[in-house]
Amino acid sequence: MPFHLSAGYKDEVVAKRLGTALRTCREHIAEIFDDVGAQSGFQAGWSARERAVGAAGS
C-alpha cells in the first residue's frame, strides 16, 4: 500500500488493486497517516515505505 499512496493513487484505485473493500482500504490508509504523522498520501506512503525498508535492513 505505501507504493500506491506515494504514487498518488486515489483510495478507490488502491482498494481495487489490492482486492479489498474501499472502507477497509481507507481504514488502513488512516492508520498509516496516524502512524507516520503524515499530512498527505504521498508523505504517508513515502514515510511508511522508508520505515519498511529501514526495518528490513536492520
pLDDT under 50 segments (min length 5)? none
Tally of individual domains: 1
Q: DSSP helix count?
A: 4
The proportion of residues forming helix, as a percent range, comes to over 70%
CATH architecture: Orthogonal Bundle
Give a count of the beta strands, DSSP E runs of length 2 or more: 0
Relative strand content: under 5%
The chain-level mean pLDDT equals 83
Task: Explain what this protein looks like in three dimensions.
The relative contact order is 0.22. Helix 2 (about 10-20) crosses helix 3 and helix 3 (about 20-35) packs across helix 4. The radius of gyration is 11 Å and the shape is globular. The longest helix has 16 residues, at about 40-55. It is about 75% helix and about 0% strand. The protein has one domain (about 1-55): Arc Repressor Mutant, subunit A. The protein is mainly alpha-helical and about 60 residues long.
Please describe the structure with a list of short key phrases separated by commas or semicolons:
Arc Repressor Mutant, subunit A, 76% helix, 58 residues, 4 helices, mainly alpha
In short:
By secondary structure, this protein is mostly helical.
List the helices and strands and how they pair.
Layout: H1 2-6, H2 11-18, H3 22-36, H4 41-56
Helix pairs in contact: 2-3, 3-4
